[in-house]
Amino acid sequence: MPRAYPLPTDLSPATVTNTKSLVRIVAFALISGAAIASRLFAVINFESIIHEFDPWFNYRATRVLASKGFYEFWNWFDPTAWYPLGRVVGGTIYPGLMATSGVIYNFLQAIHIPVDIRNICVMLAPGFSALTAWSTYMFTKEMKDESAGLLAAAFIGIVPGYISRSVAGSYDNEAIAIFLLMFTFFLWIKALKQGSALFGTLAAVFYFYMVAAWGGYAFITNMIPLHALALLLMGRFTNRLYVAYSSWYAIGTLASMQVPFVGFQPVRTSEHMGALGVFGLLQIVAFVQLVRSHVSSKQFNNLLFALAVGAGVVGTVAIVGLTYMGWIAPWTGRFYSLWDTGYAKKYIPIIASVSEHQPTAWPSFFMDLHFLIFLFPAGVVLCFRELRDEHIFVIIYALVGSYFAGVMVRLMLTLTPVVCISAAIALSTVLDTYIDPSEPDLPVPEADETSGPSETTTDAPKKTKKDKTAPPPTSSGASVTELLSGMVVTPPSTSKKGAAKEKKTGIFGTDTRLAVILNAIGMLMFFVVHCTWVTSNAYSSPSVVLASHNADGLQLIDDFREAYYWLRQNTPETAVVMSWWDYGYQIAGMADRPTLVDNNTWNNTHIATVGKAMSSSEEVAYPILRKHDVDYVLVIFGGLIGYSGDDINKFLWMVRIAQGVWPDEIQEPKYFTPSGDYRVDEQASPAMRNSLMYKMSYYRFHELFGGGQATDRVRNQVMPKTGPTLDYLEEAFTSENWIVRIYQVKKEDPLGRDLKTANAFDQGKKRKRTRPPVRRRSAA
Amino acid sequence: MLLPLLALFALPAAIFAAKESTHDSLVKLAAQSGGIIKLNAQTYDLLTSPTRDWSASIQFTALDKRRRCSPCREFDPAWTAVAKAWSTVPKETRDNHFFATLDFDDGTTVFQKLGLQSAPVVLIFHPSEGSRRSANAQTPTTYDFSSGFDAEPLAEQLSSFTPIPIPYRAPVNWALWGTVGTLALVFGLTIRFLAPIFRSRWTWAALTTIISLVMTSGYMFTRIRGTPMTAADGSWIAPGFQNQYGQETTVVASIYGLLSASFLMLTLVAPLQSGSPNRQRTQIYLWSGVIMLLFSVLVSLFRVKNRGYPFKLIL
């Protein structure tokens, strides 16, 4: 047998096995190191700080858990959120994340390693990313082999699509959820392959953990039934499937109902009905199979078939009927908007308003997945080539994942694992084919070989049995395992799996091998460079602290914390702060003050109230503010330094949401100029210029330019010469770069006048006071 | 002597009669053209005369091809459907609300008078007299297009201004049902011959691959945002990172597909060429070259979208 390059042949099997596991462990350590290290840009560039919005709430909850214990946390009622309603925190969150950090914290305390809870929260996501890499390795190993698994682990370790939600400090549910997702899927595949109730139960346990950790658990709830259904339709029902699915569903559903936030949803909502339906279907099919194996009469079989179909139809009708009767809740808006993409914008503006719920344009895919995105379809095709039961899972996952990722930017996260797996399968097949040193025989096809290596011989009988777990009969290249086994002394001509077939396939020459392998290595290196660049530039900003590059180098903009600490130190602890809901968690976390609305957007009316106050004139807004005991109003204004994520840019959503509740009082078109533009300058519509939000944003803005042209640098518009005036509020604090502006709500006038008259009177008095000197001068 | 006095007495009656006739002529006009009065500058003044006991909703549009108002043409069917639904209500209530259309070419002066710079616009005029008298009869309400050009939201929102709700019901989409029915029939008849195709894994593989390629090239973005295939000036790359045209989906999906196919060629097809090493070598170099080239094209496309991207390959 010709070889393209020589391999050592005098190695003992033990050496090969040991080296293999050593290499694997070293590779694994390096992958984990790379995964963790690339997520630390945020800590190195800025500091060990909690990022963005939701993580601030999670951090606050974790602090409660760490300091007061689990039961306190479980029963925690937070009176400062959603003032004056309050929030039952224990029953309205997924506690998995906080519980995980709490356990780690207590463990470290127990072994006398005093680590601050904040650092645990900051480092949790990078830590779990290493675990994600490991579970992806395990999953991909089930699909192909160890080498593909290692590639997949390396991909998912550094791919920006996953880093975007798991950098250090991004202490959010997704941080642990992707690990749980992959591990649950791995256990499901394992259970399916072995027909093992143990693995099915383990899958259910991790499913429970996932339910406790992330609302996206519904993805698993629907993926596994979809897989089972596809297998059923393809006529691949086996007892293994039955055991795996039944154990997963029964235990997983019961376990998931223990999470208070989920409660009875698994039996009462449409999202979970698919899983229940497939469970019922499997019972029917299993029953039919069982009876058929005992009774052989043809007529009876027909009857049985009709019965089974009838039972299925009755079950479906029952589910549909119960949905109509209202016993089963229809799809929730969030899920429904994934199918009917125009739904959210029309009926639930609050969901459509979130930037991560927007559809994804192609540059985002390339940015987040780079070259994996075009290896991904190749991997899917390779899955079709073998089409074992577990490959069907990857195929369904690929279809569903790519659709969801296209509809919502945020669901890129669920697509990323399958892209990594599929791309790893494709790339590792390429490498297998081209690293394999054996060349095909040119002149005469070699005679069929009967003596194979130990692995091949054990596989051989399976192949004939049309068992799906058998390795591909058409695989052209030898995997690394076989390659290594080729180096073993004992059977000299072992590494030729392809030789077992009639047609000898393979690659000739060393130059061709080098060309393809170098090409692949080049791409991998480009991938690493790309990932590093994207991670450090795009995904490592805490968004609490901003960085801007100017002539002097990097400049840090720390306005948010400046303003929140001002609130913390200068206002009474009971002072209620009103802001748009985006900043609710941050105010609660950093300023420790009660807020009206926050990022847990459970009460649309309350949010609309804030929207109404922000978009109405002062006179209309003042009673609303007073009724809600608001002491301070906080707005984010980017016009001075060009921070585009400010409240004026979000303003239309406030108007829209308020309009949804008070269509008679707030109308969106009134905030546009007659020609339909959204402007803040001279041409701004009266409703716009009188709105509280506009006034608070631009109050005294023109003074900053000392008579020159005041320009809004976000919207590139020249502001009017005279700025807005405020009667019912007064400026309390404005941060260094004017990003955060805080206004104090005036109390009612002690003399019972309305504040506008009082203010006019005050100003009138001032004018009188300034007159006398003039008069004196004229007298002199 | 007596005549002017008589005339004086007759005056209110005359006014009454005139008004009555205005209303009657409007009713007649509406009846003539299937429920929608086709306005011009004169009939517009008639319809919106300051004293009126009827309400009216008027669509200001520019349907002429030369005006190039594609939203106008998009909205017009919905308007017609809702007006038609209104014409089915009993006569005594129907005549209290009119649907009318004023085309730019028929009433340029009205457009100027109202300061309308864009079309389509829908204004709702409230009655100033009668039982449905409105306080702000002199300022018409502007219909809010934020919920799109569909007939359903239009009917729903206009219903708050009409005496009784507009009995609009979405028409049955016969074309869709027909297509579905025909397809089902064809499928049922040919299932015997098509079965091998549906049983083949490669059919499904092709389907899956195409769907994932299209989805990962931003197809849903163009669907949801309704972006056009190309810009009006013919350029097909939309500026900006979070934006794209339909043409980009096609181009990017085919680049992804070609790259994927090249990799599959390298893994699946090239090793089969065991007959002649030279043919195999040519193939391998060809596909590697294609991969390099297309990948650099892709990266340079990405650089157009993301100006700050520092890397590039050959191109």
Short description:
By secondary structure, chain A is mainly alpha-helical. Chain A contains 33 helices and 10 strands. In chain A, a hairpin with an 8-residue loop joins β1 and β2 (87-88).
What is the CATH architecture assignment of the domain at 559-747 in chain A?
A: 3-Layer(aba) Sandwich
Biggest interface, chains and residue tallies: A-B, 69 and 67 residues
Work out the number of β strands of chain B. Answer: 5
Low-confidence stretches of chain B: none
Q: What is the general shape of chain A? A: globular
The strand line-up of the biggest sheet of chain B is 1-3-2-4-5
Number of helices of chain B: 11
Task: Say what the CATH topology of the domain at 559-747 in chain A is.
Answer: Rossmann fold
Polypeptide structure, described:
The complex is a heterodimer of chains A (780) and B (315). Chain A is mainly alpha-helical. Chain A has a domain at 559-747: Rossmann fold, CATH 3.40.50. Chain A is 59% helix and 5% strand. In chain A, the strands form 4 sheets. In chain A, strands 5-6-10-9 form a 4-stranded mixed β-sheet, sandwiched between helices. In chain A, strands 1-2 form a two-stranded antiparallel ribbon. In chain A, a hairpin with an 8-residue loop joins strand 1 (77-78) and strand 2 (87-88). In chain A, 47% of the residues are buried. Chain B is of the alpha/beta class. Chain B has helices spanning 2-32, 41-47, 70-86, 91-94, 108-114, 151-158, 174-199, 201-215, 219-225, 246-269, 277-305; strands at residues 36-39, 55-61, 97-103, 121-125, 141-142. Chain B has a 5-stranded mixed β-sheet with strand order 1-3-2-4-5, with helices on both faces. In chain B, helix 3 (70-86) crosses helix 6, helix 8 crosses helix 10 (246-269) and helix 10 runs antiparallel to helix 11 (277-305). Classes of the chains: A mainly alpha (780), B alpha/beta (315).
